[in-house]
Design brief:
This protein is an alpha/beta fold and about 190 residues long. The protein has helices at about 1-5, 15-35, 40-50, 115-120, and strands at about 10, 55, 60, 65, 70-75, 80, 85, 90-95, 100, 105, 110, 120-125, 130, 135, 140, 145-150, 155, 160, 170, 175-180. It has one domain (about 1-180): UDP N-Acetylglucosamine Acyltransferase, domain 1 (3 Solenoid), CATH 2.160.10. It contains 4 helices and 20 strands. It starts with a helix and ends in a 9-residue tail after the last strand.
């Protein structure tokens, strides 16, 4: 059933294989969420066990919630603030040097519009890709199938319903591009 889920086909989350994967993720995130800020080595070890990939110098502040964890890849030097919800029924790929604000949700599962299929507990999933050097402000929600281009900033509270190009500022619900961002500069200005 996992192969169907990751491929974007209809699946049932109550399949025994998926339930076991979910329980494993819940156990690991529960342990992760109990760690102290002073326990960096233990946090890193738990993330390496939970996620498919975790880059060097990446920090994810608890609490953290995931569906499975094994479909999440996070690049190097990425910072994730408190309260990330990453529902990874499909792949979630986060690039290098990404900044993720408090209480961000990255969602891959989706449900059929047909009432009977929903009642029968069918769902599907679409991957999410977040490019290098993206900044997601606090409370951003990223919906299934979205790609966010490198160097893009998404304003706090925005809901990203469609893919965003590289190097733009997007805000609102649904998030819309309001302007291009300047090229690579240094010096904090």
């Amino acid at each position: 059933m996992r192969e169907r889920m990751v491929a974007g086909d209809l699946y049932r989350a109550d399949d025994p294989e998926l339930v076991e994967m979910s329980l494993r993720a819940m156990d690991l995130t529960e342990e992760y969420n109990r760690t102290s800020a002073r326990d960096g080595e233990r946090r890193r070890a738990l993330l390496v066990e939970l996620f498919a990939e975790v880059g060097e110098d990446t920090e994810v502040r608890p609490p953290l919630w995931v569906d499975y964890g094994v479909h999440i890849s996070v690049g190097s030097r990425t910072f994730v603030n408190f309260g990330l919800v990453a529902l990874d029924a499909a792949a979630i790929s986060v690039g290098d040097d990404v900044q993720i604000g408090c209480n961000v949700q990255v969602l891959t599962p989706t449900h059929p519009l047909a009432a009977g299929a929903r009642r029968d507990k069918w769902e599907s999933a679409e991957p999410v890709r977040i490019g290098d050097n993206v900044w997601l402000g606090g409370g951003v929600i990223v919906l299934p199938g979205v790609e966010i281009g490198r160097d893009t900033v998404v304003g706090a509270g925005s809901v990203v319903t469609r893919s965003l190009p590289a190097g733009v500022l997007a805000v609102g619900n649904p998030a819309r591009v309001v302007r291009d961002l300047p090229g690579d500069r240094t010096g904090g200005g």
